[in-house]
TrEMBL record:
A GO molecular-function descriptor: antiporter activity
Protein name: UDP-galactose/UDP-glucose transporter 3
UniProt keyword Transcription, yes or no: no
Chief location category: endoplasmic reticulum
Family: Belongs to the nucleotide-sugar transporter family. UDP-galactose:UMP antiporter (TC 2.A.7.11) subfamily.
Lineage: Eukaryota, Viridiplantae, Streptophyta, Embryophyta, Tracheophyta
Protein source organism: Raphanus sativus (Radish)
């Protein structure tokens, strides 16, 4: 009876994590699309300063992580010093800025799909630079994802979707997304290196260090450089309070979503988190198509299915690998 109760609690906790990640990031996606396409106020002005979203997100997550450390940390030392995140902070500032800037040139579903192909640059770098050999099923996953994204990019986008974009330019938009993936890869590798050197570093330490440097870099970029648009972004928010509210909600969704991701990884592992976030991306595309008026053709839906079929197969391969490792440990 006790085991049954424990199992039920795990199911309820997992359901809670799924609901939290889906709700936070799907709503954040809706807000991101709204801010990049909507015309605010009677003057019908667009919010052109999308890089400002990254600064706002950094500030909110910085405050949030600081509060979480004060509230929940055991007060132990041994984590990575704050200055060790300076290099990862650079790529973590440039990468997301490129990803969000892409929304000026391609639709939100196209951006989500392009950013889902993270395995492509990872495998290219692994095979070309480090000489890693991958299995045939892994190459099949990559082929499905790369083929789906490429076909989606080549298919004609509906005129209704194009009319919402600030500056339609598919090659530039997809180029920014793939640069975003490249910078993300460096960021993840640097974070792994930091946690390897400082094993006592927890998720809140990483969140604090990354967002501290992100805030510094974005403040310099938005307010310190001659062509920085920080003051214009603040002025726009003063003139259009609706946009300011959307930005605040966007940032809170990101912070809350991080909480649920940390909880999922700590209780159920990274594979469960990957599965939840991958399915969330698919649902985000569906929500964008239905609610935001970005109609996809049957061929485009086929490309979406192709990409998420490849991602699902990749998750299955990771699960099988994990099962084999666990069996070896038992024997």
């Amino acid at each position: 009876m006790e085991a049954h109760g424990s199992g039920l609690r795990r199911v309820l906790l997992l359901s809670f994590c799924v609901a939290g990640i889906w709700a936070a990031y799907i709503y954040q996606g809706v807000l991101q699309e709204t801010l990049s396409t909507k015309k605010f106020g009677e003057d019908g002005m667009r919010f052109e300063h999308l890089a400002f979203l990254n600064l706002a997100q950094n500030v909110v997550c910085l405050v949030w992580s600081y509060l979480m450390i004060k509230l929940w940390s055991n007060g132990g030392s041994g984590g990575a010093p704050w200055w060790t995140y300076w290099s990862a902070g650079i790529t973590n500032t440039i990468g997301p800025a490129m990803g969000i800037e892409a929304l000026k040139y391609i639709s939100y579903p196209a951006q989500v799909l392009a950013k889902s192909s993270k395995m492509i640059p990872v495998m290219l770098m692994g095979s070309l630079v480090y000489g890693i050999r991958y299995s045939l099923p892994e190459y099949l996953c990559t082929f499905l994802v790369a083929g789906g994204v490429s076909m989606f990019a080549l298919l004609k986008t509906s005129s209704k979707t194009i009319s919402k974009l600030a500056h339609p330019n598919a090659p530039l938009g997809y180029g920014l997304c793939f640069l975003n993936l490249a910078f993300d890869g460096f960021t993840n590798a640097t974070q792994d290196s930091i946690t390897a050197r400082y094993p006592k570093t927890n998720a809140w330490d990483i969140m604090l260090g990354m967002n501290l440097w992100g805030t510094i870099y974005n403040m310099v970029y938005m307010f310190g450089l001659p062509h920085g648009s920080g003051f214009e972004a603040v002025q726009f928010c003063k003139q259009h309070p609706e946009a300011a509210w959307d930005i605040l909600m966007y940032c809170l969704c990101g912070a809350v979503g991080q909480n649920f991701i940390f909880l999922t990884i700590s209780r159920f592992g990274s594979l469960a988190n990957t599965t939840i976030t991958t399915t969330r991306k698919f649902v985000s595309i569906v929500v964008s198509s239905v609610l935001s008026g970005n109609p996809l053709s049957s061929k485009q839906w086929g490309c979406v299915s192709m990409v998420f079929g490849g991602l699902s197969y990749q998750i299955y391969l990771k699960w099988r690998k994990l099962q084999r490792v666990q069996k070896k440990k038992k024997t």
